Amino acid sequence: MSGSAVRVSEHATQAASGSPKPAVSQAAAGPAFTARVIVGLVGVLIAVVIAQLNDHVIEVAMPDIRGALGLSVDHGSWLSTAYQVTQVAAMMFAPWCSATFSLRRFTIGAVAAFALLGIAFPFAASFASSFASFDILLTLRALQGLAGGCLPPMLMTVALRFLPPAIKLYGLGAYALTATFAPNLGTPLAALWTEYVGWPFLFWQIVPLAALSIGMVAWGLPQDPLRLERFRQFDWRGVLLGFPAIGMLVVALEQGTRLGWTDSPLICLLAAGGIASMALFLVNEWFHPLPFFKIQLLARRNLSFALITLGGMLLILVAVPGVPAAYLAEVQGYRPLQSAPLALWVALPQLVALPAVAALCNNRRVDCRWVLAGGLGLTALTCFVGSSMTSDWTRGNFYALQLMQIAAQPMAVIPLLMLATNGMTPMEGPFASAWFNTVKGFAVVVGAGVAEGLTTMREHVHSNVLIDQTGNRTQALMLAQHDLAARLNLGADAMRGLFAQRIHDQALVLASADVFRLMGWLALGLIVLIPLMPTRVFPPRPAPAAVPAPQPEQSIASAMTAAHSNTAKLPTHV
Fold this sequence. Notes:
574 residues, mainly alpha, 3 domains, 0% strand, disordered N terminus, disordered C terminus
C-alpha cells in the first residue's frame, strides 16, 4: 500500500473508532523541565531571598541607620511602615501583572528596580540630610517595598507551573526558605555590615545577587507573549479598594503601639476605613470576571485551613524569635553581633531540615497533617519552655529553644504548602500565589504589631503591680536600698535610677513570658483545627499514561473498507 493509502487508512481507523489521535502541543503539555528552566527557577529563588533579606536586615539595623542619618525614632518607624505598606500591597496584585506582562519580563523588571532603589538610597540619604527632606527617603523606601513585594509570588507561581509533580514538593520547600531561612539570616547580616563595613552596605548587599538573578531568569525562563488584552477587563475597582485597604490596615498595625492604639483617633480611623474597604474589595473580587483574588477557591477546605494556619503560624514565627532578641538587647545590653549566633543556630540548619521534611511529606505513607501537628506541637513546647525565662537568662539559655525551632518551622510550613497547592492547576497558580503571599505578608505585619503591642501592654501591667507591691513593703525597700547603696557607694539619685531600671527589667521579663505563653496556646489552638478542617492529601505524582481502548472488530473492518475505497479514488502517477 502506498504512503498516501497508509495515511488515509490511519485517518479512517481513527474516525471509525470515534477517538482521534490527540495532537499534544507544547502549550498543552506544559513547558519541558530542562536544566535551563532549573537555572531560571534558582534565579527566581535568589530574587525572593534577597527581597526578604533586605526587609529583615534593614529592620534589625534601623537604630544604626537612624544614628547615621540623624533621624528620630518616629522617622525611622515611618520608613519601616512605608516599606511594609507597599510590599504587602504588591503581593496582592503581582500575580495578575506577571500573567499580563509575562513572568520573565515582570520578574526581571522587579529585581532590577529593587536593586537600583537599593543603590540609590544611601546617596539620597546624603542629599536629603543636606536639604532636610525626609520625603525623599520615604518615597524611595516605599518604591523599594513595591518592587520587593512583587517577587515572593513569582516563586510560588514558577514552582506550580514548571516543576514536575514528583519534585514539586521540593520546590515548595524552596519557597519555605522565605519564611524560615531568610528572616533568621537578617540579624547576622545586619551585624556584619554595621560592625565591620558600613551602613550603606545594608542596602548595597543585594546588588551582586540581584545581577546574578536577572541573568539566570533571563536565560532560564521561557518567554511568554504579552497579554495586554487583559487590560480590557482590568479590575480598576479592585485596585482602588484593595490598595488603600491594605495600606490603612498595615499603617494601623505598624504605628498602633507608638500612637497608643485606641487612644489615637488616627489609628481608629485607619482601622475602621481599612476594614470597610477590605470588605468592599472582597465583594468586588467575587463578581469580577478577571479578579486579583478568586474568592471561590476558599470553598476548598484545605486551602482555607492552610491560609488560617499559615497566618497563625507566621504570627508565632514573628513573635517568638523577637522575644529573645528584644530581651537580650534591652536587659542584657546585647548588640546584633552578640545576638547573631542565636539566629544562625536556626537559619543554617534549615538548608538541611527543609529538604528532609519535604522528602518525608513526599512519601505517600505519611499523612502531612500529622507532620503539621508535630511542627505545631514543637512550637508550643518551645513557647511554654520559654515562658519560664528569668532576668538571669543569657544567650546560652535560648539555644535549647532554637534547637526545637530547627525542626518545628519546616514541619509546620511545608505541610501547609502541600495542603494549599494540592490539586491546583497551573492556571490556578497565580490565584493561589496571590492568596498565600498576601496572607503571608499581612500575617508578618500582624505578628510584629501584636507582639509589640502585647509586650508593651503587659509590661505596663507588670510594672504597676511591681511598684504597688514594693510600696506595700516600704521598710524592707528602705533597708535593701541602704545596704545596696553602702556596698556600691551610690548616692540617692543613682539608687532611684537603679531601682527604676530593675523594675523595668523585671516587667519586661514577665511580659516576654506572657508573649511566649500566648503563642504556645495559639499553636495548640491550631492543632485542634487539624482533625476538623483539612482532608488528607497525597504527594503529587505524574498522571498515568492513557491506554487506548481496544477497538471492536466491526469498526476496524469498516475502517479498512473505507480506506480501500479512498485508495481506489487516488490518482496514479508514473
